[in-house]
Amino acid sequence: MPHYLDDAQREDVQHLQCTFTGRTEWPTWLLLAMVYGGWTALLPLSHALGVWPTTLLLIPLLVLWLSLQHELLHGHPTRFPWLNKLLGYAPFALWYPYTLYRDSHLIHHRDHDLTLPGLDPESRYLSDRHWQRSTRWHRGVLWLGKTVPGRVLVGAPLGLFGLARKELARLGRGDRQAWLMWLTHGLCSVLLMMLVARFSALSVLHYVFLVSVPAVGLAMLRSFYEHRPHPLPEQRTVINEAGRLWSLLFLNNNLHLVHHDLPGLPWYFIPRVYQRHRAQWLLRSGHFLVPGYGALLRRHGLAPIDSPRHPFA
Fold first, then answer.
1. For residue 311, is it within any domain?
2. Is residue 275 part of a domain?
3. CB 155 within 8 A of CB 215
4. In angstroms, what CA-CA distances link 275 with 19, 87, 134, 278, 297?
């Protein structure tokens, strides 16, 4: 338990972990069954529903799956990493192997390195040296990604391009772990696309570019402004008081400081712990508070939220 929690917070977390829900983690098991069952059912149902209604149902289902994968890599719903990996390995969203996401994301949880390019694998900033060396086109794309529409529209292609560049370099060096990971992920992805082609009304290309890519882009809305550069690490992580629909879709990870402070706390307990101790969390964050994703869209539909150039890296 983190040392900076007060006694009331500690007791609250310990009590929740000892409840039936905390011991069994049944909400996460239920969501896993719903996502697997929903995806499987939508394939044959797509012939009756039609291509576009099926697409509109699959996109949020994949966003929820990405949120579930995040929950799994943090040790839920079991204490066995191999079992959580097995539960989360299905490449419904195609692009990111589970193990790659798990390993890089756990590095991201070194809070003293948050936002620092080269140290935080999820940093959205460039160091001064890389900024000076970047082209005008590259800077323009980065500035675009600092708006909400830009983040949703170009965030996924940019992220996938960066992923491909890094992973191709690893494969080119003959990294055995990378080869094993990508061959396994590739085989699973091919099998998944065979199911799509065989049982659904969607083509493989439709699923790849009109289901998977938009789902990844929508998921990137959550990470659009969940961290900011700040001298104090604890004030780099946002609290976004999003509405119920967004909170469910992102499994309450919008209350991001609570998650970073208590990464082992399951998603369904995060709002309760936050609401009971809201004043303490806001004080700890330096009142780094966003009143929902609608507020972000209104304020930063056109205006960049900050600079892609890190102020002190």
1. no
2. yes
3. no
4. 18, 31, 43, 5, 24
Is 102 domain-assigned?
Answer: yes
Number of structural domains found in the chain? 1
Task: Work out the angle at residue 149's Cα, subtended by the Cα atoms of residues 147 and 154, and round it to the nearest 5 degrees.
Answer: 90
Cα separation, 134 vs 307, in Å, equals 14
Q: What's the mean pLDDT in 253-276?
A: 96
Residue 308 inside a domain? The answer is no
- Residue 290 pairs with which residues in a beta bridge? 240
Domain span at residue 186? 7-300
Could you count the other beta carbons within 10 Å of the beta carbon of residue 48? Answer: 9
Threshold 0.90, pTM exceeds? yes
| Whole-Å CA distances, 240 to 217, 224, 292 | 19, 11, 6
Tokens of 135: 């082209």
Q: What digits encode the pLDDT tens for the residues 185-231? A: 999 999 999 999 999 999 999 999 999 999 999 999 999 999 999 99
